[in-house]
Amino acid sequence: MNNTLLRVRDLRVDFGAHAVVRGVNFDLSAGETVGLVGESGSGKSTLARAILRLLQAAQGSVEFLGLDLLKCPPAALRAQRRGLQIVFQDPLASLDPRMTVGETIAEPLKVFEPGLSAGARRQKVGDMLQRVGLSSEMSGRYPHEFSGGQCQRIGIARAMILSPKLLICDEIVSSLDVSIQGQIVNLLLDLQDAGMAVLFISHNLAVVRHLCHRVLVMYLGKLVEIAPCDALFASPVHPYTRALLAAVPHMPHAAVAAAPAAAPGEPAASGEVDAPGDVDAPGEVAALDLTASGCAFRARCLYALPVCETRDPPLLEVAPGHWAACHRSHETLNPLSWEPV
């Protein structure tokens, strides 16, 4: 897509001796929604926080509208905060219990639009609450008076009150009922039309498939596959991606036939549910040894070759717009025909 909004290059984040995010490269365009998927502990949330400079990166660059956020001074970074917003995974932990909902949502307006009158701020807050499925009369209540799903919608309202250019969503639908998930997905689709870019972190592959234009697959802090959404679900190349998709449970055909039809704009009842913490591959996710060589997935891969022990595969384009980090990615046009070694 044109109009690149965010450009991430060679980003790495270390926690002590462990590389939690390593060598990450991707672009995000205006109006594009990119999904970020992977097992728990793969570094998805750490990547999101490093992009926003909420965590210190060890190396790399994060260019937002041409400005490297990792190198710009604090004043310049603060000026960019209006266009960069995040909705955190834990809604209660991200809301101040001493502030009413209205005060929480209005706070960004006080910082970035100090010229607004109190009445104009109240109107904007009320409109945003209604936009995320809540009532404007709820603005005087405190976070403890709401359910977890309602608190998540409050966090979304706070992030969107400034109409940011980039919204990072960290598991924002995981605590919501299916009907509310549909409302939030429809809201994000509307924001796409307005030109807002979204980095959508989720375990819910059904929502990712419905909402996203492209998908980034992360394993042990590294992107192992990048592809258009339809291509990834139809023809996954990397063995980890294939194992991740295979781990999604499906309802029996009889149950799918009996399931009610989805409301307009909501993801269809395909039987796909949240992916579990583990995938159908031997072994468990372990911390990455910075001194180790070779592919990090080799110990769990059914298709590993001797070269996988000694050389880390680069991310290469195997089809237009489809990238994979696997030594066997170019063996055949149909990686699904690979035989285990």
Description:
The protein has two domains: 1-83 and 165-248 and 286-341, P-loop containing nucleotide triphosphate hydrolases (Rossmann fold), CATH 3.40.50.300; 93-163, no CATH class. Helix content is 30%, strand content 21%. It has helices at 44-51, 74-80, 101-112, 118-131, 148-160, 178-193, 205-211, 229-234, 239-246, 253-258, 307-310; strands at 4-15, 18-29, 33-37, 59-64, 67-68, 84-87, 166-170, 197-201, 214-219, 222-228, 316-319, 322-324. It has an eight-stranded mixed beta sheet, sandwiched between helices. Helix 3 (101-112) runs parallel beside helix 5 (148-160) and helix 4 (118-131) packs across helix 5.
End-to-end Cα distance: 38 Å
Global outline: globular
Instruction: Tell me the count of domains.
Output: 2
Q: Helicity, in percent?
A: 25-40%
Number of helices: 11
Parts with pLDDT < 50 across at least 5 consecutive residues: 253-278
Query: In this structure, how is the largest beta sheet organized?
Result: 8 strands, mixed
So what's the CATH class of the largest domain? Alpha Beta
CATH topology of the largest domain: Rossmann fold
Strand content: 15-25%
Query: What is the averaged pLDDT score?
Result: 84
- Rg, rounded, reads 21 Å
Question: What structural class do helix, strand and pairing data support?
Answer: alpha/beta
- Level-2 CATH architecture of the largest domain: 3-Layer(aba) Sandwich
**Major sheet: arrangement of strands:** 6-7-8-3-9-10-12-11
Kindly state the number of beta strands.
Answer: 12
CATH superfamily of the largest domain: P-loop containing nucleotide triphosphate hydrolases
The secondary-structure element order is: EEEHEEHEHHHEHEHEEHHHHEE
